[in-house]
């Protein structure tokens, strides 16, 4: 069928965290952007992190206000064992480049919020509303779906200020790992592996900047808090397994992957001694070895690798010379190691103080890019993809 991913997210472990209450007789609606178009669509639902199987009562996919109920091996419901995933049967819905795909999942039984990513989605009042043109939001009266919601969806508690000064939280949600399309004839599939700045949406913005006839899928495998070398601390499992640990699952399992962008923040050396034990602080040699291992594993699988320089640390960490020195040294290695790279650091740092974000591109914590910052990174990546004739 020539299936290719049009949207992905990296699943991570939310057990023991209080981001969302459990589900029970509710429908979850996730509205995600398509990076490439196709004539058919299917979804992958994952129970990667859980203590029990998850029962999917019903699932529907919507495009342009038209919904199709999808089955699993010909059956309307399915049970996903612990640690596994299930693909839906295809739906005959045409997906356009830059369009939106709505995925409804009805969860009839008590189901913890476990395998997910910390992004925005809607949950219904009690009942099965999969594929319903009217979706009664939890705590509100019935409301028609908003099929024109602009990506990325925004967390209402931290809405962007005028000029793009706020945070971005892309659409995503529980259990939904992949949306694929058939008939796209994808020329390239660019997998973006990284941490919070990646998870916050520059890959999706990049896809939106590319022309439809480019047929390049740009998909996101970022996890907030993620590190290259170390798994998440026990108290915050949602920061995910190390990039080295999840590489096979999040990169090599992406159908048709041709390119890999490695775009991490400073978590490897920004967290130790502040949030995680100081003895987790890496040396420069250990950091470079981590990058080199990712590069080598990708090359063995025939992937073209692109490195991204590391954007500024938060003000508190940047004022500690050892941490800023590591960031500068890692960036120097990225710029001179002989691999293709995109200079994210140069794109959004302050000309007056290169250890800080340019104010126009900084989120309120001055540790992450705001809306404008994410779009600026996307512009850099889109230019690079064009330079490489993708």
Automatic annotation (TrEMBL):
InterPro entries: GDSL_Rv0518-like (IPR053140), SGNH_hydro (IPR013830), SGNH_hydro_sf (IPR036514). Pfam families: Lipase_GDSL_2. This is SGNH hydrolase-type esterase domain-containing protein. It comes from Streptomyces malaysiensis. It comes from the Bacteria. Residues 192-375 form the SGNH hydrolase-type esterase domain.
């Amino acid at each position: 069928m020539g299936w290719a991913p049009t949207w992905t997210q990296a699943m991570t472990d939310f057990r023991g965290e209080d981001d969302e209450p459990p589900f029970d007789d509710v429908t979850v609606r996730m509205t995600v952007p398509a990076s490439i178009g196709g004539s058919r669509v299917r979804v992958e639902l994952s129970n990667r992190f859980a203590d029990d199987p998850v029962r999917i009562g019903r699932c529907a996919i919507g495009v342009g206000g038209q919904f199709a109920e999808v089955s699993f091996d010909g059956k309307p419901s399915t049970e996903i064992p612990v640690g596994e995933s299930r693909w839906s049967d295809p739906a005959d819905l045409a997906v356009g480049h830059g369009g939106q795909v709505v995925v409804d999942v009805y969860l009839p039984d008590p189901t913890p919020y476990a395998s997910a990513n910390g992004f925005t989605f809607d949950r219904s009042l009690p009942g099965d509303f999969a594929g319903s043109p009217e979706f009664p939001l939890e705590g509100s009266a019935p409301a028609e779906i908003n099929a024109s919601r602009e990506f990325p969806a925004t967390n209402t508690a931290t809405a962007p200020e005028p000029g793009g000064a706020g945070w971005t939280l892309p659409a995503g949600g529980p259990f939904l790992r992949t949306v694929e399309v058939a008939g796209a004839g994808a020329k390239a599939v660019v997998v973006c592996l990284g941490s919070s700045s990646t998870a916050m949406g520059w890959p999706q913005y990049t896809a939106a900047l590319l022309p439809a006839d480019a047929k390049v899928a740009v998909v996101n495998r970022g996890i907030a808090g993620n590190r290259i070398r170390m798994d998440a601390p026990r108290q915050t499992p949602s920061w995910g397994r190390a990039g080295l640990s999840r590489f096979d699952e999040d990169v090599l399992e992406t159908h048709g992957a041709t390119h890999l962008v490695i775009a991490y923040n400073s978590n490897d050396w920004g967290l130790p001694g502040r949030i995680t034990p100081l003895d987790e602080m890496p040396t420069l040699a250990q950091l470079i070895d981590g990058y080199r291992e990712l590069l080598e594993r990708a090359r063995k699988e025939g992937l073209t690798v692109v490195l991204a320089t590391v954007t500024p640390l938060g003000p508190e960490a940047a004022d500690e010379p050892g941490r800023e020195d590591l960031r500068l040294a890692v960036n120097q290695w990225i710029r001179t190691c002989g691999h293709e790279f995109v200079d994210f650091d140069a794109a959004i740092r302050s000309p007056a103080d290169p250890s800080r974000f340019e104010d126009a591109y900084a989120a309120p914590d001055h540790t992450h890019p705001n809306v404008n910052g994410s779009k600026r990174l996307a512009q850099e990546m889109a230019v690079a993809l064009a330079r490489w004739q993708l």
